[in-house]
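User: For this week's homework, look closely at the record that follows, marking any run of repeated tokens, and judge whether sequence predicts the tokens.
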Amino acid sequence: MISQHEEVARQRVAEQIRAAELRAQRNEYRETLRAEGHGSGPRHELAGVLRRLADRLEPQPRHRRTGLSVVR
């Protein structure tokens, strides 16, 4: 029988492994896109920078609409 401390440690390690696997999958996906010529270049980089800036400025994330803004 394992102690509560050991169970908590086991769960944390499992979470770290899952997070590392997800990062590896995302990186692999990005590399695949780059190899195919998608998602590279200055426009893509600029879009990423602007997205991160908007995330920092907005207090709460909300759905990003595409296209021109429409007055309601």
Q: What stands out?
A: The mean pLDDT is 79. The radius of gyration is 20 Å.
